[in-house]
Amino acid sequence: MNDSCDSNNNVTPIVPMTVEETQLDFNFLADLALKTVYTDANCSTARAAEKLCLSVPVTQSLLQHLYKEKLIEIRGQVNYMNYQYAMLDRGWQRANRLLDVNGYIGPAPVSLQSYRDMVARQGCDREPISPGFVKNALSDLVLPEITMQTAGLVANSRRSLFMFGEPGNGKTSIAVALHSAQPGEVWIPYAIEVDNQIIKVFDQHNHVRVEEDGSNGYDRRWIKIERPLVVVGGEMTIETMDLIYSRTVRYYEAPFQMKANGGTLIIDDFGRQRVDPADLLNRWIVPLERGTDYLTLHTGKKIEIPFEPLLIFATNLDLEGLVDEAFLRRMGYRLYIAPPTREQYGSIFQKVVKDNGLVYDPKLLEFLLQRYEEKKRPLRCCEPRDLIYRVIDICRYAGQPPELSRDLLELAWINYFGRDKDPI
Questions:
Q1: Which CATH architecture has domain 25-106?
Q2: 10 Å Cβ neighbour count for 321?
Q3: Is a pLDDT exceeding 90 seen at residue 149?
Q4: Quick count: other Cβ atoms within 10 Å of Cβ 138?
Q5: What is the pLDDT of residue 5?
Q6: Is residue 188 within 8 Å of 175, Cβ to Cβ?
Q7: CA dihedral 301, 304, 310, 315 (to 10 degrees)
Q8: 247-251, 279-283, 302-306, 321-325 — which is least confidently predicted?
Q9: One-character DSSP codes across 256-283
Q10: pTM for the structure as a whole
């Protein structure tokens, strides 16, 4: 990793012009090329190169090999170095056998070592984050100065963060804002090859593609994306933290922590998963200590994967019995998110009022704060927003322009908390 840091900060993947430069086995690529021809009735050298995300010279050498092996035939020439291909009976038979073993058809993968090298280079290439940038990213939140400072240290160092505190005070919002404080993009591969097995990495749900200038100037097996933000909650299990093998398509899906590399991984509502918290924490110990994760192929083989997301835990459960001190020592930072003071609650209320184009009246804020005191209800950061949104809902339902009044806030209070409900 240190050697990668000595490079010239240029992480753009270079186009391989020979099969050797792909760092993949020739026969593996030839099989993938055959499956590509199998699915394209109008396959040509250029079309195959586009689908495989390989250069024309590499694709041509693969197709010529298939032609010499009498798996495909040349139907004609479109233009220079661009031939028309079709399957032969022997090719159909081999392609069907290949698909029974591995159903992956698409962009050529990269080698596991190439992936490790790219993650390391991009980690070294990351620019420092200034306090001003963090302040701007958190500008929509009303936070104490100490919280802002800790958030800045987390964003700049990318050390892990454990946030805890009562529900409704902004832990998830802070985590998402911390992600936005990390500028830049990262390169990820469509897929990775390990022992002729495919691990699919690119995920349209979690990855937002960034168009790269000069489509021929980089290895198109890689995609430039916005730094990924992956949020998992109660659905997380031990099994979802490992490679997910599909017996239908016969290749792997990368686990969520691998998809979050270079970005942010938020473990929301920690402690509410369908698995013992201690088992989950033990699963994170090695990645947190070494920056490396170990995943298992269905053959039983373990593979070493970089672990480079900004890892954020958030919980509203009592830490007693939930996490032990040994685990917390491995976390980079701990942050208690306290309930808002009256002044902070007022600032949030005023901001939400103005953001929604309503007229701010300090007397209405006082009325609301008095209701909290009467009901002995603790203040929560999310509640000014939630109450005002319910006022807007009431106005729209009545067919009138949104406005704030004492009666409307009272009705919103009842609809939100319930009439004469005991404090929770």
A1: Orthogonal Bundle (1.10)
A2: 10
A3: yes
A4: 21
A5: 58
A6: no
A7: 30
A8: 321-325
A9: HHHHTTTSEEEETTTT-SSS-HHHHHHH
A10: 0.89
